[in-house]
């Protein structure tokens, strides 16, 4: 089973990213998926968690993801021990930041990938919504999901007026991370 934990703030789209990943895998790659949020006080800007599980067989565990293969951080101000806790050795931590990966001290045997998803989103969408470029960074770094499946999920899930810009944003972030690996 592959498990992903998403750290974001209310309004950044962490749950939408978890859901898009789930849609891409379930519908377009025919695997079993769970995608669900965990909210504290539901207000814009409050820390939120979202989770995605992927497996070839039915998933019966409904608990929050504690031990995970991948962690995605949509806002680098959330970085701390709670972010890296439970990240498996050999896992990947993807952080939206202007800083280099070396700025995030490692507490285990995992890879840190950084991307300025905010700048990409501002450039392409005109808004600092980082869920799609962070999903792209994860897909590029992890290689567990086909990027075409995610582009199809964007068509399936996002409103028609924002689909093309989000697909362009996904492709730009995906290409950026792939080019740096």
Report the CATH superfamily: Pyruvate-ferredoxin oxidoreductase, PFOR, domain III
Largest sheet: 6 strands, mixed
Give the count of helical stretches.
Answer: 6
Poorly predicted runs are: none
Radius of gyration of CA atoms, rounded to a whole number: 15 Å
Order of helices and strands: EHEEEHEEHHHH
Range of strand content:
25-35%
Using DSSP, what is the number of strands? 6
Q: Could you report the average pLDDT, rounded to the nearest whole number?
A: 92
Briefly, what CATH class? Answer: Alpha Beta
- CATH structural fold name: Pyruvate-ferredoxin Oxidoreductase, domain 3
Kindly name the structural category.
alpha/beta
**CATH architecture, please?**
3-Layer(aba) Sandwich
> Helix fraction?
25-40%
Number of domains: 1
What is the spatial order of strands in the main beta sheet?
A: 2-3-1-4-5-6
Give the N-to-C terminal Cα separation.
24 Å
Task: Choose one word for the global shape.
Answer: globular
Q: Briefly, what is this?
A:
InterPro entries: Oxidoreductase_gamma_subunit (IPR051626), PorC_KorC (IPR011894), Pyrv/ketoisovalerate_OxRed_cat (IPR019752), Pyrv_flavodox_OxRed_cen (IPR002869). The protein contains six helices and six strands, in the order βαβββαββαααα.
């Amino acid at each position: 089973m592959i498990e992903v934990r998403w750290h974001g703030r209310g309004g950044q789209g962490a749950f939408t990213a978890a859901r898009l990943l789930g849609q891409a895998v379930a519908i377009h790659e025919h695997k079993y998926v769970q995608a669900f949020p965990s909210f504290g006080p539901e207000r814009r800007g409050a820390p939120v968690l979202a989770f995605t599980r992927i497996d070839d067989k039915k998933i019966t565990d409904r608990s929050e993801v504690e031990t995970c293969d991948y962690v995605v951080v949509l806002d680098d101000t959330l970085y701390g021990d709670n972010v890296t806790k439970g990240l498996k050795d050999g896992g990947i931590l993807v952080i939206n930041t202007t800083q280099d990966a070396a700025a995030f001290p490692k507490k285990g045997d995992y890879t840190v990938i950084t991307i300025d998803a905010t700048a990409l989103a501002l450039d392409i969408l005109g808004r600092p919504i980082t869920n799609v470029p962070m999903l792209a960074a994860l897909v590029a770094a992890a290689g567990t999901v086909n990027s075409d499946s995610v582009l199809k999920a964007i068509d399936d899930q996002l409103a028609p007026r924002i689909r093309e810009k989000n697909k362009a944003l996904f492709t730009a972030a995906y290409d950026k991370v792939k080019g740096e690996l």
